[in-house]
Amino acid sequence: MLEASFIRDNLAAVKANCENRAVTVDVDQIVKLDEDRRSLASKTQAIQQRQNELSKQIPQTKEKAAKDALIAEGKSLREQVANLDAQLKQAEADLKAALLQVPNMTHPEAPVGKTPADNKVVKKWGEPKKFEFVPKDHVALAEALDLVDFEAGANVSGQKFYFLKNEAVLLELALVQYAMQTLIKEGYTPIITPDLARVEVLEGIGFMPRDPNPETRQVYTIADSDLCLIATAEITLGGMLRDQILDEATLPKKYVGLSHCFRTEAGAPGRDTKGLYRVHQFTKVEMFAFSTPEQSESIHQEILRIEEKIFQGLGIPYHVLDTCTGDLGGPAYRKYDLEAWMPCRGELKDGKPTGDYGEVTSTSNCTDFQARRLNIRSKKTGEKGTRVVHTLNGTAVAVTRAIVAILENYQQADGTVVVPEVLRPWVGKDLITKK
């Protein structure tokens, strides 16, 4: 969340930033709300100062009429303060609600644009495999090898739910172990987080669980409670240190969290969203860091490096996108997406899939945007002042999408699928075959 004072002092830049990020916000109204709040606070302070003066004068006043007049004035002032307090609380609530709509500022090097075509490819790794046969998509492979039961998932929970079976279960467990062990070696503390969080924590991270529109709401809310199912462990990891003052000597604090993730939006029907690619529930290993402002840029590059390391280890070609302003979301100052090559994604040509890249991870530097909402600050030993920390996040492995990439890239002409070498110790075999 941007501070009202920052918006007031950088009005033109904030307006331009909202335009670049395709966010409609009445920034001038925010300035007015802040002026109203400050005016009410000033009036309240002036009256309270007069109350303090009266509290000293009344005991010293001997003449009854004068004393009664001071007491009457004191009563009137108490009523005015109560009225102003109510107005001030409402003004503060209105201002906060408006501030929650304003996105973070943007890194000056982030591409300006509003469509996926405006994202900039900054790196490519690996060469897409050329098959000597017509490759099958992950759905056909999973059904032929008895790895996923989509019909049972729909019958039990609804469309876009599924049951993993046989080696798909082992692949999920292997991917979790592979990602966790990689991150532990990189110095990240392993965490298993709750799968639910309070509404105010989601709002602090940048989600809108109170969104009244079911078409745009991102998360599942739990009836008769202030809890939501989390869409990512970024929510719970970020909320883990809310309302704390951290010793700067202990920063950065780096965590790798494991959780289930729940998303209400599962995409429009189509080749690119079917099967496991876009679902309502999946398992994810997530990186999260708390840092000083001076550390956040280097940590952002570190998280991206680790994401690349994981997919290089899996042997899956990918490219890295510098995400354009219109696709950053609210909290991110800068975001990189890693898209893996998926041979059966994209258009069909002469009945054969052309293949395309699909997002498998992303990493964002959210600067102080989330931490200000969550009231997470840092302090240097021996100094009085505090400052807001920076937060960063990144996907290590979103299991379902990683399985999509593995099945499609490692399939063979006979319908079997080779297990990536780095996963074999946990899967326990080199090849997935028909039962």
Automatic annotation (TrEMBL):
It catalyses: tRNA(Ser) + L-serine + ATP = L-seryl-tRNA(Ser) + AMP + diphosphate + H(+); tRNA(Sec) + L-serine + ATP = L-seryl-tRNA(Sec) + AMP + diphosphate + H(+). Its EC number is 6.1.1.11. ATP binds at R263, T264, E265, V279, H280, Q281, F282, E359, V360, T361, S362. Residues 67-101 form a coiled coil. GO terms for biological process: selenocysteine biosynthetic process; seryl-tRNA aminoacylation. Keywords: Aminoacyl-tRNA synthetase, ATP-binding, Coiled coil, Cytoplasm, Ligase, Nucleotide-binding, Protein biosynthesis. One of its GO terms (cellular component) is cytoplasm. The keyword Calcium does not apply. Consists of two distinct domains, a catalytic core and a N-terminal extension that is involved in tRNA binding. This is Serine--tRNA ligase. GO terms for molecular function: ATP binding; serine-tRNA ligase activity. Catalyzes the attachment of serine to tRNA(Ser). Is also able to aminoacylate tRNA(Sec) with serine, to form the misacylated tRNA L-seryl-tRNA(Sec), which will be further converted into selenocysteinyl-tRNA(Sec). Residues 137-420 form the Aminoacyl-transfer RNA synthetases class-II family profile domain. It is found in: Cytoplasm. Homodimer. The tRNA molecule binds across the dimer. The gene is serS.
